[in-house]
Amino acid sequence: MSLCLRVCTAASCRSRGGEDLRQALAAVAGSSTVVKGVGCLGPCSEGPLLELETASGVGHPERQLFGNLPASDPAALAALARSLRACAENPKAPAPWQPPAGQALDLNHPFFRLQRRLVLKHCGRIDPESITEALAAGIYQQLQRVLEANDPAAVIELVRRSGLRGRGGAGYPTGLKWATVAKMPGHEKVVVCNADEGDPGAFMDRTVLEGDPHTLLEGMAIAAHAVGASRGFIYVRAEYPLAIARLRQAIHQAEQQGWLGTAIAGSRFNFEIALRVGAGAYVCGEETALIQSIEGKRGMPRPRPPYPAEQGVFGLPTLINNVETFANVPALLRLGVEAYGGGTKVFSLTGDVLRTGVIEVPMGTNLRTIVETMGGGAPQGRTIKAVQTGGPSGGCVPAQQLDTPVTYESLQALGTIMGSGGMVVMDDTTNMVDIARFFMAFSREESCGKCVPCRAGTVQLDNLLCRILERRANPADLEQLESLCVMVMDTSLCGLGQSAPKPVLSTLRHFRGDYLAMLSPEATP
Amino acid sequence: MPESFPDLEPVLQRHGRQADGLIEVLNHGQELYGYLGEPLLRHIARELRLPFSRVQGTASFYHLFRFTPPLRHSCLVCTGTACHVKGAGALLAVLAGEPLAERGIELGSVRCVGTCSGAPLVVVDGAVWNLQTSTALLAGLRRLEP
Amino acid sequence: MSVCTLRIDERDVAIEAGSTLLQAAREAGIAIPTLCVLEGLSPVAACRLCLVEVSGSEKLLPACITPVQEGMQVHTATPRLQEIRRTVIELLFTEGNHVCAICVANGHCELQDLAVEVGMDHSRLPYRFPDRHVDLSHPLFGLDHNRCVLCTRCVRVCDEVEGAHVWDVGWRGEHCRIIAGLDEPWGAVDACTHCGKCVEVCPTGALFHKGDTSEEKHSDPGRLQALVHARHHRQWTP
After folding, report:
1. A-interface mutation test, from B111, B123, B129, B130, most A Cβ less than 10 A away
2. Does B117 sit within 8 Å of A44, measured CB to CB?
3. The complex's ipTM?
4. To which CATH superfamily is domain A2-107 assigned?
5. Distance between CA C127 and CA C25 in Å, rounded?
6. Which pLDDT value is given to residue A525?
7. Domain boundaries, chain B
8. Which end of chain A has fewer surrounding CB within 10 Å, N or C?
9. Which chains touch B (3 or more CB pairs under 8 A)?
């Protein structure tokens, strides 16, 4: 009987003792038992998580997932290790193993069953610190194929035909972006990965960076080859120390094994990647600000045009995509346009929902399927009031609209955006004015200060929302709130300011009653 | 804060003393010396041949850079969306009323560390404490070495 | 030299290709309010006063950096734009402490002129009364942060024309302020050449000559333009 124990050591499980669990179980490793740390296994709320794969030599290996395992109690950890050792030493295929503490999670639950894992295919399967495992899993094979075929135009055409759109929020067609950069004159071009996942409540990119960094590097290298770039940057936020460490290691390993650097895989293609760590500025997720920051400056956006495709990092034509977009590319090349289909979207599900974590679902899945069927809905005795998507640039979808499919268009029609994939569920105890104020305070704090409407407008909007929350506002204040929202949206220089009013406008549209209920008692007739 | 910074040399060299390395150099400088004191900033400006105001302007733009020495411990309350929905505001309010600085604990906030299943959470000396209540958090902070 | 013809506020304009909408409008005698832009310095498109409507574009475009295009239809003074401009001025007035009566620039202040131009006789938004300080450490000049509108002309002129880069913008968002050196007193910054260009281009009374009292500051940004012109073309008009 051989066992493979996969312990989630990504940041969420790690904070629940995942690394201690892995170390305790390392003692179980033997000739027929492998113990490894892996990236996110999905249902973070049940962490620390352990996946047990048993193979008796006949039939398919059996997979079981366990949650809420002991992490800090030495006696409980020892009991767990003993039990697993006994399981490993059992020559026959036993009845499903039961942990002495913790609980088995049903892998047939919709949370797992309804997922389609393209981007997260290897996440939770392989040890992200080992390029050997990455290579054994087939990572870098698509890069190799692309280099052998040496037909950049065909790759761009494939990406274009797939309909892949930027997963960072704006949804710009990826193939078009690649084609634009490829067409730009000049021999020196740059590929940038935006890993500055700043939306609060969003951690899809962290999951990829911590769980499968090599797929990202492969996607970037394929993109660089397609557009003719030889330099790459990954801009990652400082709040993700584990992701930074794993990226550094992965880049180093890929250089050592010839998947980055000069003459990659024996071809004439050269591509190097440098890591740039942010220092706490949400606005650096905006691409022109990100370029400034990579150049070592204040992260202040500048007007476009010129677009980064024309003038980006160091004035060179620059392709910028986010982590999930690049991580889609190897899967797309592997499957081909037809099998890839409509693709997927990775979401981080959090807030007032029973099961929180990271899921990857087919594009177009209903919101209700995600938050109720997969996430289990609101906690006992409460009901869902809204689902927030798109972070500070997005809005709230009211419960009665949960049958909306998640597509770029349908969410936009509801006054929100797909965004990068943060999905925060809010139950009926939530005051939507408070949520609107939360996001406005966020934008106020993160405004770079360059243009007047964003710098001063977000402050006035935040103050107005506070006034409402303190029940000091009258209907005229509400009117002023709305008109100033429109003004800031229409006149701000960059995406941060242009979308900062969205959480207010979206809650005004769907939850106006929450606002009216908070107007000053003296002011309302 | 020392007056010379030999430990910074490798990172300066790695970036070829080029201006675009400024944020990386500032990050490393803060890691090495705890904060960006005036002598350190002057040193970095001279090594990268940048105007002082450019270095100060850049450093002060980013929230994670600090210009005063840190206290012995840090307690960052996450104020991301999930933590906000789950009560981060109440945690901050309770902590703000405590004489934490006297006990060497610096109170701050962070906009989402991306492990929202533990909301509301705090980051104490780099470690994430999940599912906090004000009672549990205060008890935990009391156990920190003064 | 190729020429573009376009229509601005129902007036036909012909202008050299590569010019901006702002230049085209001025050529046609149409005044678009501006604050951060100053000929001779690189544009930053930050104040948003010069936003105009262009047919076929959903977004409002800053005239200071938008290049003219053949056949463009531009509207510079629609009610929507007038409302926006008034709000921008209100946002500027309420974020600082602008007390015209005691200001060195009273009567010669671009912000004051703009307020008159957009018809802002009072602010509909509440004043914020920020706590800002005054730097009088320089032997010749003073900086009153209360009157600063963060147009960054001083930062740009010191960097792009004088080459001293004494100034930069420090901090961020509502906490942004102009800093000298390592956020030091101006007088302590050795890099300053005492040239006074920053005072010359400042649109308000934020930067001023010491000794000037109310209404005594007369800036002349035109002198900067003459200087930049002379340097580029090696032509002087003595």
Report:
1. B111
2. yes
3. 0.96
4. Glutaredoxin (3.40.30.10)
5. 33
6. 47
7. 6-61, 73-142
8. C
9. A, C
